[in-house]
Amino acid sequence: MAKKDKLKTVKAATKSKAARKAKVSNARTVTETATLLSSEVVYEGPLFRVHHDKLIEPGGLENEREVIRHNGSVVILAMDKSKSKKDPWIVIERQYRHAANQFLWELPAGKMDAGEEPLAAAKRELAEETGYSAKKWKPLVEYWASPGFLGETMKVFLAEGLIAGEARPEEDEKIDFRLVKLSDVVKMIKKGAIHDGKTLTSVLLYLQNTRGKKAK
């Protein structure tokens, strides 16, 4: 192949790659929503509501869905870096989860009250479940927990500069919490000892972000 032809091929491939990136970038900014034809509450409890919705999806498909509506939840990745910045200690909890029929290791978390700001909810949940407060708060990520049927987002906060206090768990909560080194939490994840999605998401994303900063 001649040098000119090679150059044209490289330019074409570069343009094609740039076009694909532009499409992905545009897809992230455009929000398409369904047309809701009707919505009926078929169950309402203290934690969530179940809706039966009739809708027309953005692609034009008419459909019916059962959706659990929830105020949303907060997750707290609470860190103590006083002993080691490279391998900080993380607050994790162990509690029984009936839906999973087992005890799970988790980060502190809880649902937001109606109209409650996410940061206020995160501070409240951390204090109630562990007694800790924190000097520094930073949002880490927000994601949909299980969007196939659950209308719940989980907003994760990084909490640093921990101050110990007295836990005030709710009457139906029995929580065992402790400080564990980040490296040990990662070992637990690799061994399959942590099955909780919010904990996996939060810890692994934090690791990815910190590694990215070190690489720069």
Structure commentary:
This protein is of the alpha+beta class and 216 residues long. The chain folds into 2 domains: 35-69, no CATH class; 73-142 and 153-215, Nucleoside Triphosphate Pyrophosphohydrolase, CATH 3.90.79. Helices cover 32% and strands 38% of the residues. The protein has helices at 3-29, 118-130, 182-191, 197-215; strands at 35-44, 49-56, 62-69, 73-80, 89-97, 102-106, 109-111, 133-144, 150-151, 153-163, 176-181. Strands 4, 5, 6, 7, 8, 10 and 11 form a 7-stranded mixed β-sheet that branches. The protein is globular and about 55 Å long. The chain starts with a helix and ends with a helix. The model has no long low-confidence stretch (mean pLDDT 88).
